[in-house]
C-alpha cells in the first residue's frame, strides 16, 4: 500500500514551532523518520503556522528536498499555495486535494496535468457528502471522467471516500468500505483509493486500536493508499502483516524489516 506520512503539518506543535523559527532540523528529521517507518510519500501542510503560506510551503519543500527526493503531497485548500508547492515539489507529486465540485475541478485538473501530478479527490460535491457509497461513487466517476478529458490517467486519481468519525456517524465506515470496493469497477485502469485514516477515530477512546482495525478492514476491501503516521509502529506492523496475509507481499521470516527496507 502507498503510505503518505502525515506528520509535516503545521497543526502539530513541533512543526508549527519549526516553521515559525525556520528550523530545518525538525522538518528534516520528521521527513527521514517517516520514510524509515515505511512512508513512500510525505504530506506537506502549512496549516495555521504562517501568515505567508505561499513562502512557507516553498521553504518546507526546499527544506525536505535537502534530505530526500521522495514524492510530496501538497495539502492545502488555497490555490496559490498549491500552485507554488506542487511546482517546487516536482514530478511525481500529489495534489491534496480537490472535491467533485466543478469550480475546483476546473482549477486543479489543469494544474495536475501541467505538473504531471496525481490528485486526491474527496467525494464531496455541491450538495455535500453523500449519505451512502452509491453517491460517493457517482462523484468519483465524474472526477475520473474530468481527469481523462485533461489527459490524466484514472490510476493517477486517488478517490477518498471521506470518512466521518465513527463517534459521530457509525454507518460511515461501512459506506466508505463499499466505496473502496466499487471504485475498482469505474475504469480500466481503475482509480486508486485512499483514506485519511485518523479521521475515523476522532473524538473516540482507543483511537490507535480503531485506526489499526479499520486499516486492516480497508485493505481487505482493496484500499490502495492511506495518509497516516508511519512512525506509529503498531499501526505499520498491522498494515504490513495484513498485506502479507492478502498475498500482496511475498512472505519471508523477517517480513516486517523487509517491507520497511523496500519502502525506504
Task: Note down, in words, how this protein is organized.
By secondary structure, the protein is an alpha/beta fold. It is 47% helix and 13% strand. It is built from ten helices and eight strands. It has an eight-stranded parallel barrel, surrounded by six helices. α1 (13-21) packs across α2. The relative contact order is 0.13. The model has no long low-confidence stretch (mean pLDDT 96).
Total number of β-strand segments? 8
Radius of gyration: 18 Å
SSE class: alpha/beta
Largest sheet: 8 strands, parallel, barrel
What's the overall average pLDDT, rounded?
Answer: 96
Q: What oligomerization state is this entry in?
A: single chain
Record keyword descriptors for this entry.
8 strands, 47% helix, 8-stranded parallel barrel, 10 helices, alpha/beta, single chain, 264 residues
Summarize the structure.
The protein has helices spanning 13-21, 24-37, 53-65, 79-89, 102-114, 133-149, 172-183, 207-220, 233-245, 255-263, and strands spanning 2-5, 41-44, 72-75, 94-98, 118-122, 157-160, 192-196, 225-228. The chain is of the alpha/beta class. The longest helix has 17 residues, at 133-149.
Indicate the topology:
Elements: E1 2-5, H1 13-21, H2 24-37, E2 41-44, H3 53-65, E3 72-75, H4 79-89, E4 94-98, H5 102-114, E5 118-122, H6 133-149, E6 157-160, H7 172-183, E7 192-196, H8 207-220, E8 225-228, H9 233-245, H10 255-263
Parallel strand pairs: 1-2, 1-8, 2-3, 3-4, 4-5, 5-6, 6-7, 7-8
Amino acid at each position: 500500500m502507498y503510505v503518505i506520512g502525515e506528520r509535516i503539518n503545521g497543526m502539530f506543535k513541533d512543526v508549527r514551532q519549526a516553521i515559525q523559527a525556520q528550523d530545518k532540523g525538525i522538518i528534516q528529521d520528521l521527513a527521514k523518520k517517516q520514510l524509515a517507518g515505511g512512508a513512500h510519500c510525505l504530506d506537506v501542510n502549512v496549516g495555521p503556522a504562517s501568515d505567508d503560506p505561499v513562502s512557507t510551503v516553498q521553504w518546507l519543500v526546499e527544506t525536505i528536498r535537502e534530505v530526500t527526493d521522495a514524492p510530496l503531497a501538497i495539502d492545502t485548500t488555497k490555490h496559490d499555495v498549491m500552485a507554488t508547492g506542487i511546482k517546487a515539489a516536482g514530478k511525481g507529486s500529489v495534489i491534496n486535494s480537490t472535491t467533485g465540485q466543478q469550480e475546483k475541478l476546473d482549477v486543479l485538473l489543469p494544474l495536475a496535468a501541467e505538473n504531471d501530478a496525481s490528485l486526491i479527490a474527496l467525494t464531496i460535491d455541491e450538495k455535500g457528502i453523500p449519505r451512502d457509497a452509491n453517491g460517493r461513487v457517482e462523484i468519483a466517476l465524474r472526477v475520473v471522467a474530468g481527469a481523462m478529458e485533461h489527459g490524466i490517467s484514472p490510476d493517477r486519481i486517488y478517490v477518498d471516500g471521506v470518512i466521518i468519525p465513527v463517534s459521530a456517524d457509525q454507518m460511515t465506515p461501512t459506506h466508505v468500505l463499499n466505496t473502496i470496493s466499487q471504485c475498482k469497477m469505474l475504469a480500466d485502469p481503475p482509480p486508486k483509493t485512499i483514506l485519511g485514516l485518523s479521521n475515523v477515530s476522532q473524538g473516540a477512546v482507543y483511537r490507535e486500536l480503531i485506526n489499526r482495525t479499520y486499516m486492516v478492514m480497508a485493505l481487505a476491501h482493496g484500499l490502495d493508499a492511506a495518509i497516516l503516521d508511519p512512525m506509529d509502529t503498531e499501526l505499520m506492523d498491522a498494515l504490513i502483516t495484513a498485506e502479507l496475509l492478502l498475498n500482496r507481499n511475498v512472505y519471508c521470516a523477517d517480513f516486517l524489516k523487509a517491507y520497511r527496507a523496500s519502502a525506504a
